[in-house]
Here is the input.
Amino acid sequence: MHHRFGRLALVLCAAAGPLCIAASTNNSGAIGLATTSGSLSVDNATVQGSASLLNGSQIATTDNPSQVTLRGGARVDLATQSSGRVYADHFVLEHGTSKARGVTVVVNGLRVVPQDRSEVEVTTESSTHFGVQAAGGWAKVLNGRGALVAEVMRGSALSFVDQGTGAGAPTQITGCVQQVKGTNSYVVRDETTNVIYEVQGPDIAANVGKNVQITGGLVTTGTPVTGASQLLSETSLTGNPNGKGCKPSIPAAAAAAGAGAAAVGGGLSGVTIAIISGVAVAGVIGGLAAAGTFSSSSSSPTVSQ
Here is the structure.
């Protein structure tokens, strides 16, 4: 792998001339290689063709997209007019749009983790707003504590907005209440985020089989029932007149009805917004509007093997 990186960098740098700032990921500390058909900026220096990258290198594109390949085969494609920082085990998207495969993307304090080598697109809207789209495969979105905020499933897109209220803010989810057979555990799969919560509170048992909206606080000191990702303590519960009912009991929490399973009477209806630890999450109809493009305005360089 290192020799392949080295040959590619040397050929591109030879073609580009003295503006190329690095020749090979064999260099001490190099973690990968950035390539483009035109120019890009690496650590505030203009580069033609390619550059090897150090841990924490800042990369920015203008009129041409760039491809970053890390040791081990992980890849980040950076659209035009986009920027970020590259690390050995993650990429921090600062502005614009990226497509990642095999590497975590950190954006606005959350971590987007592609699953099963999936390719996931992440687009920033502002310092508090970004979107995630999974054209193929799926991804998990985690907060700074490693807690699951959302699962972005194949063919779907979600929008995330930091409300500025902090991680201790109330959480709001919508879904159908079901009891796990043989236990006193009640679970809800949130319709927007696809995350399964074990919910504890005074109104839960009376609403089994009903679609409801629940507000409460995440319990970080407890352990949810197997198959659920989070434990939620209910403070208020209201019926959801637009929601579908569900089977009152299920064999395991992972079988909870909602975005990832069929509800009684058909699929989900209506548009809901979840609020998870101060982050509002909503579905995006028609996919994300990318901040840049992945097509180049320049011709691709020739690479000899």
